[in-house]
Specification:
Strand content: 15-25%
Strand order of the largest sheet: 2-19-11-14-10-3-4-5
Helix content: 25-40%
Radius of gyration: 22 Å
Structural class: alpha/beta
Low-confidence stretches: none
Number of strands: 19
Length: about 400
Amino acid sequence: MQTQEEIINLLEKEDQTQVLRFADQLSDQQKQTLFDQISAVDFSMIREARKPQEEEKEAVIETLSTMTIDQIKASREAYETIGKKVLSEGKVAAVLLAGGQGTRLGYDGPKGTLNIGLTRPLYLFQILLGNMEKNLEGTGRYMHLYIMTSALNDQATRDFFREHDYFGYPKEYIHFFQQEMAPALDRDGHMLLADKDKLCLAPNGNGGWFRSLEHNGMIEDMKKSGVEWLNVFSVDNVLQNIADPVFIGATIACRQYAAAKVIAKATPEEKVGAVCLRNGRPSVVEYSELSDQMRYAKDEKGQYLYNYGVTLNYLFHLQKTQKMAQKHLPIHKALKKINCLDEQGHLIIPDAPNAYKLEYFIFDILQFFDSILSYEVVRQDEFAPIKNKSGVDSLDTARALLVNKTGITL
């Protein structure tokens, strides 16, 4: 743990002493709270974010071949055999990305605690656990599940699982870890204060998952348990197919160390990231990055070239990913409206974007692999995200897709 003097020296070096502007007005306890927050800041992330934006050379974007549903069907039995063997040997663990709140849905709480039932309680976390357990039937094993929370929802998430007795899953196989927080920066790259003794902090994006696992000592625990593969997935898709033996088997059979589940886009305009090659490396191209020419381009068979979007369900080889995670992920800066203190200590509630939120994205790690498996799944079987309060990808559409797929009563 750094001393206060060491932290002051660091702030001077990093040109960030403004966060101590009100230190003389703080009690010893408040001052310690602020210094503790500062000591946890990843200043390398801030330094990177403050660098002058270099003019990016136009990327060369090309298509990445995908293992289609028909190709998977042809070898399904062989892939499933490989996957079930690996699962039965305890070589797969799951990582659930659940650091967010349900704010966009008008829900005050961790997104995974959302009750989607109509006539009975049925929670997102409960559904995902059930999906995972179905694939473990017959393996004779439970699988370790690592749940990434954030400072915003960690205690509420832990309490929720405890109150619901872990939905019958052995609690010794469920592990919680917090993702790291990143400070908000003003337009000049200076950290902002939420209060006189608190930084403006927000979760550092889903791309920080591996590093947060390492910092919590969980990677070494995984290795001791014999884990070789990590199935990483998001919390907001009720049809997530977790520990899918066919997906696992196909990845291993193709001798890949990373794989992504993808769906054929409903339309060229659908706003999902498309798997591709960027400058010859595996990547995900955001919808906004595709030109109209690329968006509507077709191959000789009349199929759209950039037709496959990610579902946020990945498989990573543990040791290979540990090596890749040492490399620097790009930082994504988003200009947002962020409440903060002004120089006089008055709270500003902006009516326009005023500060940058810093995040890492999970798909950026794909570029460090020489190749990946892009693996197509049936949309109505595995893709029912809850992103919006109403309309497309909402609670209502997810409910309908879940009932259509499973036939369960909500």
